[in-house]
Structures are given as structure tokens and as C-alpha cells.
Amino acid sequence: MDDRLDGKCALVTGGGRRIGAAIARRLHAAGASVLLHYRDSEADAAKLEAELNGLRPKSAAKVKAELLAPIAPRALVGAALDAFGRLDLLVNNASSFFPVALGAIEPSHWEELVGSNLRAPLFICQEAAPKLAEAKGAIVNIVDIHAERPLKGYPVYSIAKAGLAALTRSLALELAPDVRVNGVAPGAIAWPDDGQFDPAERERIVATTPLGRLGSPEDIAQAVHFLACAPYVTGQILAVDGGRSIFL
Questions:
Q1: How far apart are CA 102 and CA 228, in angstroms?
Q2: pLDDT at 195 over 80
């Protein structure tokens, strides 16, 4: 398998920070030009853009978009074409993640969680598909182990990620043979910035992970890179979770 991406363009949603930034760095190191999508993390995206362009001039660009806006898919694909003239890889990484208990679910919760985790990836994929087909390219969706094993207290999020897993497999059929579509299902990689899990719960999660430790954003980036380059892999969702999904 050739793991080089020289001359290719990757669009990474939520690419300015955390897992998205690690994915962008990994793909860039493999030779790809990278379009970094962000919503609120402008400073992080600008810093990463400058870092990547410092390594290889004119190899990174950024674009701001609210993914729930109807115009976002066309704006993102258009930005990739404007910046680099092509699109070879789409990584749907951007995601909202927060708990909402049954009995307290409001339409706004549904719109945000399903919108960011399922609806936006669907319409971005649809918009990107013709250009990806021209390039014989690929899509990698960042799913979650909780698409298969729901997380208590997070029913809407779990439903949305289950939908994204189904979308991944469906599009692998719809877009074959020209576009490969796969997913990565992270386990405990990076704790949420807003402290959703208290110390005791964090300890429990690590204790129920067979490898006995957290993963890193780079672990997810490595899996995305593999799927971007694997020429005979499509319709698969790769768990990168330290074995936790076999324990749950």
C-alpha cells in the first residue's frame, strides 16, 4: 500500500483543534494539501494553517462554516476547489457531544446533535461525491464506539452516531466503485473540554479499557491515514478504542 498523498487535497471538518488537527497534520505529513474547516476555533485554525504552510508553502487553507447552514456543503467543497483545484479525501470529523436525558430532550438538542453528526456529513458527502469520484477518492467518517454500544445519558448522540455508521456503509454501496467510504470509531481518546466526565468516571472508563490507558488523537489520525490509502477497503468501520468495545 502506498501511504503517500502527494498532490492530493483533503478536507477535514473540525480540523482546527484536537482530533481534527491531528488528522490534518498526519495527512499533511503524508504530502496532502489540507483544507481546515472550523466554526468557532478561528485562532486554532489560523495557527495550524500557518504551521503547515511553514512546512510546505501554500499547502494549507482554512474555511469557516456553520455546518447546519444549508449553504455549508457547497461552500466547503467550493473552498477546496478554490484553494487546491481538486478534492481527493473528505474527513467528516466535526461533532457536537453533550448529554441530554430522556424526558428532557428538546428539538434544539436533536437539531444540534443529529445535525452535526449525521445530517451535515450526509450533505457534505453528497456535494463532494462528484469531485471525489473524478479523483477516485475516499471519505472517512469519524463515528464512535457508542454507535454500536449506546452511552447512558447520551441517547440522541448515540442515535446520531449510529446513523453515521449506517451512512458510512450505505455510501460505500452508493458511491462504489469510484469512491471508497469508511469510518473510524474512537473510544476514550481525549476528554471533553467541558468536564463532562468526573474523575471517578474517567478512572472507570480507563479501567474498563483492555489496554488500560487513553488513546491519543494521533491514534485516530493514523487510522484515518490508513483508510485514506487502503485501495481495497470500503464500507468498514475501524474501532480505535484500546479494546473497550469488546468489554462494554
A1: 37
A2: no
Residues in the chain: 248
In the chain, % helix, strand, coil (3-state, to 5) comes to 45, 15, 40
Mean pLDDT of 163-184: 98
Q: How far apart are CA 153 and CA 177, in angstroms?
A: 39
Rg of the chain, C-alpha, whole Å: 17
What is the pLDDT of the chain when averaged over all its residues?
A: 96
Question: Is 154 designated active site?
Answer: no
Residue 40: φ, ψ to 5°: -110, -15
| This prediction's pTM | 0.97
* Distance separating alpha carbons of residues 215 and 236, to the nearest angstrom: 20
Average pLDDT over residues 213-237: 97
The active-site residue out of 38, 154, 157, 232 is: 157
